[in-house]
Write a structure and sequence with these properties.
The protein is mostly helical and about 280 residues long. It is about 60% helix and about 0% strand. The protein is built from 13 helices and no strands.
């Protein structure tokens, strides 16, 4: 929508897309400037000195300009994946609120009375935290921050636990099926969790593809099905994994955890066997 409004008679400019993707660079400026401004504004009185109004004023205007640019680029970037996303919606609202607070802060920084400025500065710092958290959730997934601690706990528990036994699912139990956990649960789901779900989860859902549930995998994404049961060579999920790492369509993207050769063989065998869940 934004791209169409800015360029109604032509295709969206690639430079506009570049500006949108610069959001991940621009957003770091206000995240650093606001704490620095707070340190100067509140630190000086603690040392029984007057706050350095010149540097604080300069930082306030720098933060306002940086916030406006970060918000504008974020709105452009959001148009690349315009599907419904609650986390992105919350991040967008808080980002606009933070931008408004930074602009008002710049206007208040010139005043001699410091109380309104300091109250608003604290409010901006308070809004900045959930805004950054929601942005990180979209980029890395909701479990990114504490994932190493959970993995370490799982590893310790696995070392101390007895050999695992697989219980039937609730649906299977209700139907009288007492078979052990499926091949998908034992082998495929852990591969997808490690390599795919950081970008294809309810919070991010890149390409309208959800890979945290069997229903999401079966539904596919914006380009259609990703698994063709019984036909691994025609399954886009496997096809993309097998592309060269530097290929634009390779998945997972370069820099993300990649499936091993053994895991790729497991995915191929699972699909060839009917992609049963």
């Amino acid at each position: 929508m934004i791209c169409e409004l800015l360029l109604p008679s032509s295709e969206p400019s690639p430079w506009l897309a570049v500006f949108g993707r610069a959001h991940i660079v621009l957003l770091h400026a206000p995240l650093g400037i606001l704490p620095a401004m707070a340190l100067l504004e509140f630190g000086a009185p603690l040392l029984r000195r007057e706050a350095p109004r010149g540097p604080v004023l300069a930082l306030a205007w720098f933060a306002a300009v940086a916030c406006v640019l970060a918000a504008a680029s974020g709105l452009v970037l959001a148009e690349e994946d315009a599907g419904p996303n609650e986390t992105r919606g919350q991040h967008k609202v808080l980002g606009l609120v933070l931008t408004g607070l930074c602009v008002v802060l710049a206007a208040l920084a010139v005043r001699r009375g410091r109380r309104p400025f300091r109250i608003l500065l604290l409010a901006a710092l308070g809004v900045m935290v959930p805004t950054g958290h929601l942005g990180g959730t979209m980029t890395h997934g909701s479990n990114f921050l504490f994932a190493p601690l959970r993995e370490a706990s799982k590893s310790d528990a696995a070392k101390n636990a007895a050999p695992a036994t697989y219980e039937p699912t609730a649906a299977a139990a209700n139907s009288g099926d007492t078979t052990p956990a499926s091949e998908f649960q034992r082998t495929i789901a852990p591969i997808l969790e490690r390599c795919c779900t950081k970008c294809h989860n309810p919070d991010k859902k890149k390409g309208e593809l959800l890979m945290t549930t069997p229903e999401g995998i079966q539904a596919g994404g914006e380009n259609g099905a990703i698994v063709v049961a019984g036909k691994p060579d025609e399954s886009p999920m496997l096809q993309r994994c097998l592309l060269p790492l530097d290929h634009d369509d390779h998945m997972p993207p370069d820099g993300k955890p990649q499936p091993t050769a053994a895991e790729l063989e497991a995915l191929k065998a699972w699909i060839a066997g009917g992609a049963k869940y």
